[in-house]
Amino acid sequence: MAGCIITIDAMGTQTAIASQIFNAKADYVLALKGNDPTLYGQVKNWFEQQLYQGFKGIIHSYDKRVEKGHNRTEKRQIWCVPISQLQTLHNQDNWVGLKWVVMVVRVPHVWNQTSREVQFYLTSLNCVPRNLGQVIRLHWGVENGLHWTLDVTFSEDGCGVRTGHAPQNLALLRRIGLNALNLEQSLKGSNRQKSNPAAMDNNYMLTVLTACLSQHDETCKPACQ
Questions:
Q1: What is the pLDDT of residue 152?
Q2: What is the CA radius of gyration of the chain?
Q3: Which of 1, 45, 141, 203 has a Cα-to-Cα distance from 222 of 20 to 30 A?
C-alpha cells in the first residue's frame, strides 16, 4: 500500500480507515457525504460562504476544465483549501494526515438538460487541483462501471439488507464473486450468464473457484477503491 493513493466513497470515510491508510505510508482521498452530518454540514456551509465571498483572503487552489463529447458537455471546477484555513472541524484531530478539504462542482449538459452536482473530499495529498481532479474522476469511472456490473450480475441495487455489518459483508462477497467470474473463461458468456450455472452446478462452481485460486496472488481480492 505504501506510496499508493486510496480513494473511497463515503462508506469508507472514517477516521480509523484514514489512520490505517496514512500509517501505511499511503495517501487518501475520501468522499464526504451526509453519513457524517456534522462534518459534512460544516464543510458544505463553509464552502458556500466562501463561494459567495469569492474566497477573499483565503489560501486556496483552483482549476476549471470543460470537456465535450458524445452530445455531452461537462464543466468541472475544483477548489482545494488547506485545513488550516477552515475553522476547527468536528473531530478534526482524529483525521490523521488530513491536509486539504476539497470541493468539486460538476455541471453536465446533455442535449437540453443541465444539472449541477457538488461533492466534498478529505485528502492527505499535497493538493494540485488538476491532478487531484483526475484522481477523483478515475475513482468514479471505476466506481460507476463496477456498480453497474454488480447490479446487472447480482442485482445489488435491489438488495434490502441494511442492518449492522451485513451490507459491507455482502458487498465484499459480491466483489470477490465478480472477480472469480471474470477469471473463469471456459464458459463463454456474460458474468450474469455464468453466475446462474455457478449457482446450480457444483462442478462449474468448482471451476470458477479454481480459476480464481489458480492466480494465487491479489486478483481474487475485492475490486474496490
A1: 65
A2: 20
A3: 203
